[in-house]
């Protein structure tokens, strides 16, 4: 099963950063046409993103190569459709959609992808969509709608705090102990639950202080413990930290193997005892997930 631990943003208009992207160790590279690219550079960024996709196509076929995704501009801009037309011939694995307002935003992008696929720009039905679902108050309040929507292209859900904080006039996002304040904790939790309801990866937001690797590691470990599959990254130094935090330790793997083996040795039982602890089906489910046996 392909891992989705580290999702690394790379500006589309930086040849130097694009040249290093495939070797950063990230599970996913997101070439960014939105916030990282100034309006006057949008056209150049599209062409550079397209060239990068074509240049790295063979490299991307390797089993351990990162997936290649593109963040397009938001649907309320003049650029998003042209972004898709430019990059889809390069066959990205997915599209990151900023400022998604709800399932209708996903359907709108999916419709454009379908048209491009029909025109022969990409293999039909393979391009996934990862929306940022919390960047406006209206979008954040609508997160539960994703759980019941029919959106076959959804490749995961993620969220962001920066745009939302500006929209609601919040002067802080975390409290003095580094924990999310109420509004951000609420939307993060709803996004996590919606992703699990859909059985797709839940990707936690970025750690914006890229020089604070200790803080990042703590945040990433907490995110994994909360049920997230991975985390956004904005600096190459963050990739290794995120990958490590989202990789089960040898001790966790060994414990999971023993739990799976214990249940396998007693087929049909709902609960059993191991090392003096009572285990039931949720313990087995978590153990199987750690071992990659369940998606």
UniProtKB/TrEMBL annotation:
Family matches, as Pfam families: HpcH_HpaI
InterPro entries given in the database record: Aldolase/citrate-lyase_domain, Citrate_lyase_beta/mcl1/mcl2, Pyrv/PenolPyrv_kinase-like_dom, Pyrv_kinase-like_dom_sf
Residues bound to Mg(2+): 135, 163
Source domain of life: Bacteria
The entry's keywords: Lyase, Magnesium, Metal-binding
Required cofactor names: Mg(2+)
Single Gene Ontology BP annotation: oxaloacetate metabolic process
Domain (HpcH/HpaI aldolase/citrate lyase): residue spans on this chain: 5-236
Coiled coil residues, start to end: none
An MF annotation (GO) of this entry: lyase activity
Keyword flag Transcription: no
Keyword Metal-binding: yes
Family, as annotated: Belongs to the HpcH/HpaI aldolase family.
Name of protein: CoA ester lyase
């Amino acid at each position: 099963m392909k891992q989705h631990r580290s999702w690394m943003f790379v500006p589309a208009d930086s040849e130097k950063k694009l040249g290093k992207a495939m070797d950063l160790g990230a599970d996913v590279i997101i070439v960014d046409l939105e916030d990282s690219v100034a309006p006057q550079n949008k056209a150049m960024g599209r062409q550079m993103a397209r060239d990068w996709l074509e240049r790295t196509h063979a490299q991307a076929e390797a089993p351990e190569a990162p997936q290649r995704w593109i963040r397009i501009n938001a649907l309320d801009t003049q650029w998003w459709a042209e972004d898709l037309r430019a990059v889809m011939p390069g066959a990205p694995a997915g599209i990151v959609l900023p400022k998604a307002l709800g399932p209708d935003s996903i359907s709108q992008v999916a419709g454009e992808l379908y048209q491009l696929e029909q025109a022969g720009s990409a293999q039909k039905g393979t391009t996934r969509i990862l929306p940022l679902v919390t960047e406006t108050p209206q979008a954040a309040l609508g997160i539960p709608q994703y759980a019941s929507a029919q959106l076959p292209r959804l490749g995961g859900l993620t969220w962001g705090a920066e745009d939302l904080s500006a929209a609601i006039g919040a002067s802080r996002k975390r409290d003095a102990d580094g924990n999310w304040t109420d509004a951000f904790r609420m939307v993060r939790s709803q996004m996590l639950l919606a992703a699990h309801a859909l059985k797709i990866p839940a990707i936690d937001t970025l750690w914006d202080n890229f020089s604070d690797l200790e803080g990042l590691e703590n945040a990433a470990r907490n995110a994994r413990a909360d049920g997230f599959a991975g985390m956004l990254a904005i600096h190459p130094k963050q990739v290794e930290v995120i990958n490590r935090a989202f990789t089960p330790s040898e001790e966790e793997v060994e414990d999971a193997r023993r739990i799976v083996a214990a249940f396998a040795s007693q087929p049909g039982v709902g609960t059993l005892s191991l090392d003096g602890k009572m285990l039931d089906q949720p313990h087995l489910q978590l153990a199987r997930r750690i071992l990659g046996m369940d998606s």
